[in-house]
Amino acid sequence: MNHNRATMAVLGRCFLALISVCELQSNLRAAPMVYTGSVVTDVRVGTTLLHNASLKITFEGDSNNVVQVGIPSTVCGGTNYFLYLTQGSARMEIEFQGRTRMARLQDGQVFVAVDECNGGIGFGSFVGPNGLEVAYPLAFTTGTAEYAAITFGNPLTGPPLSVTGSAWSCIGYPPLQTGALPGTPNGECTPPDAYPLQSDIGDIYIYQPYYEGTGVGGINSNHSGSTNRGAFHVGPNTYGTLEDSGAQESDSESGIVYTLQTVADGSIGNHAFYQALVTFRMISDKRSVTTQPSPADATKSLYENRDGYASVTVDDGGNVITAKFERGEVYVRYDTGAGVAGFGSQISPTYPVALNCANTAYPSDNTYTVDCLQGEAWDYLLFNDTFEIFHGGTLAQLSDPQDPSAGVKALPQSISQNTLLTGTGHTCAGVYTIGPTPQFHYYFPGDLLVCGGPAPRGLHTSKGDLFLQDSVGGSLSLGNLAPSGEAATDPSWDLANSGFLHVEVHRRDD
């Protein structure tokens, strides 16, 4: 079943001419703000293509300049659901193979926006075939990004916010026809090559390599069709670059860098945080990767790397704490049999963070004693529905491929090769509480709610013990704010946090 939603559709191409006469000055609280989006995707700078580069987009502006666009919404009824901020400066930080390119975009190209009806947030631009794109260079749907966009009463004005969701870099969004919006000719995103974002380091282009197809051409869904994941942050300051993590590089000839980013709850030292941006990083050597049969499927492999220098950075509303882990305290793990990847520890192989875990109690509600023994595909197989498995991200697509994009097909199932593994995030040392089966179980199934308790001990770091305990999980609901026929009218993993594990291999002389 295809669930299409025109996130940010109120600023679709057919409405471009109305913007100049429909802007209404917002009366929301004014404050200088910084908006940051992070994702791993393909980026081209000039003629140089950077495959799976770490991209951070930053926009600085004043929330007093946020305006509402008074175009009616047939989905939610009424007007003024789309708000955007065009006045400000935009920058990009592009990290690839240990080198960081810093770019300042020319003014007037990029804006920050939120769609309070359909649940989208991120960066749009005045480029493309019609001069306006609502999901390019980077916008987010589903997950906590959707929840904040719909329920927070304009999250662009603060307070500080960190959310995750499906990441779109899509010219022509929405790609599939919906309502008055015609979609693109082939149902996919329009290639950005003819529509550069101009900067002081040359023209920049952002691509959409990771998505699920329909089987007959086009992206599966305007809402959840992108299987890439990323984070959006609103606050008084941007978070530090990953190079500031304090970890030390290996002395080996070749190095491998693992970066996992998500949003989570917990504490580090004496500092407690709720829905903070958390980034794990480990620098190691690919020769340290071990292989053994997967406990979930002995015909497939379990990969681990337990030898490296690991760090964690917590950005809690602009309060940034970076700490080193004690050696051997955490490690990187990818169970291809279960389709689960993340950072493990002596406490649990899937704690502090695991991506693409089953969101339904496994093997059953009565016998669920260990989390993450199966991947998210299990949730759909319970209902004999393989066509929706892609909702779990690239990890789910690699585990049970239906119609993944060429970009997904090319991703290695490995932690010793360059790859990008995305999925719903579990941050729990034990098990989750169990709730009722969601009403729209076919969309994002799962009856788990929140982490049932704290870890038995903290993970030792240079800034004190780290604890993570998921207090969001599958507990969020949009209730009657959910558009008709959509998920999340009751608690659902549609609104949960997600994350990405980026594996980057490079030689010391790169």
Coarse structural class = mainly beta
Characterize the main sheet: 13 strands, antiparallel
- Distance between the terminal alpha carbons, to the nearest Å? 46 Å
Mean pLDDT: 87
- Please compute the radius of gyration using only Cα atoms: 21 Å
Unreliable segments of 5+ consecutive residues: 1-30, 237-253
Beta-strand segment tally: 27
Q: Considering DSSP H and I runs of 4 or more, what fraction of the residues is helical?
A: under 10%
SS summary, helix count: 5
Shape: globular
How much strand?
35-45%
Structure in a nutshell:
This protein has 510 residues and is mainly beta.
Helices and strands, with pairings:
Blueprint: H1 19-22, E1 23-25, E2 32-45, E3 48-62, E4 67-69, E5 82-85, E6 88-96, E7 99-104, E8 110-115, E9 120-125, E10 133-141, H2 143-151, E11 161-168, E12 204-206, E13 229-235, E14 254-268, E15 271-284, E16 289-293, E17 301-305, E18 308-316, E19 319-324, E20 330-335, E21 340-345, E22 353-355, H3 377-381, H4 394-399, H5 406-409, E23 419-426, E24 432-434, E25 448-451, E26 466-468, E27 498-507
Antiparallel strand pairs: 1-4, 2-3, 2-12, 2-13, 3-6, 4-5, 5-8, 6-7, 8-9, 9-10, 10-11, 11-13, 14-15, 14-26, 14-27, 15-18, 16-17, 17-20, 18-19, 20-21, 21-22, 22-23, 23-27, 24-25
